[in-house]
Amino acid sequence: MAGQRKSYDIKGTSQYSRMQDYSSYQPSELGTFSISEDGDFINCNTAKIPTLLDYKLPLNLDEGYNGTEGKDKARETTFPQWEKGLKWIHGSKEGYGSVSSVDIIASRGILKDIGYTNHNQYNNPWKFEACKFKGKVYLRKVDEEEDENEWCIRNSYWGKKFEEYLIQQETGTKATYRMLKGKIGKKTVLLSAEVDAISSDGKYMEIKTCFANKIGVKVPQAWWQSYLGKVDTLYYGLKTRQGMVYNKPTEITMAVALTKYVTKNRANEMIGFTGDVLDWLYGALPDKDETWILEYTGGRQIFLRSTGEKFLPNWYLQFIEGRKEEELVKQVEALTLSHPVN
Prior knowledge:
The protein is α+β, with helices and mostly antiparallel strands. 34% of the residues lie in helices and 29% in strands.
């Protein structure tokens, strides 16, 4: 019913550090999928991980920036990825088999924001939409325009431009994602996590830019995001305030980032907090196709409220609703790459 409201009280960080050791999160990769240049889903078995390009310094990240066009570029890969993940489930035998034991389905970015709540020095708010249906919680980002200032938009553009200089995408694709399954708290999660690039020696890389004097502030959140996505190395372009990168990007392994910038205790706090929130959310949501807003606005509470609106797309409901698991398995087995989901 629209208007219903529930809340989660945030505990002290030390309590979360004792809930789960960060190292117990060992996700397995179930497959990949890509997004085409037009934003369409490309079936999982055909996806290829981007590779690193040769480049020549210096790099001008501000090249091509032009107000509105720059804003569009900063946002151009913001697709409704949660539904792409559903298409991966629908079209992949492995995906559906994994869903039978999954409790939470979300993108890596959502859990990144939730887990960093206690460590965000600016108390930045976040808001997501949630639904529990047939024993599984679905989380997605709220589709609304962000109120960003010119400096934030420009920096977002610089990040995308840096990736353009460094990354070679497969022809016809704009982004590639891994599907990962792991345990956080008491719940098994299925995450879609974008892959920036893979190195020549097979290491997964997270590509980012940063001002040199902010590296200590930026790395902890990047480590948490990358740890969720089973990334091996952080690859930082140190930029000037004019958007120039003069030196070779700095490589920071996840182990070094943990020891130097994060600490094991802080890592335990982030995964413990995420697990506790997910456990609470799972119990707080009614099992029905209904949209709930999960929101943090600062302070020591997280709020959950119903909008009364439907959540799941009709094609997905038709796929799962009112059918026995054996029938669904047979249908998934019958799907082929020549008949992708539209």
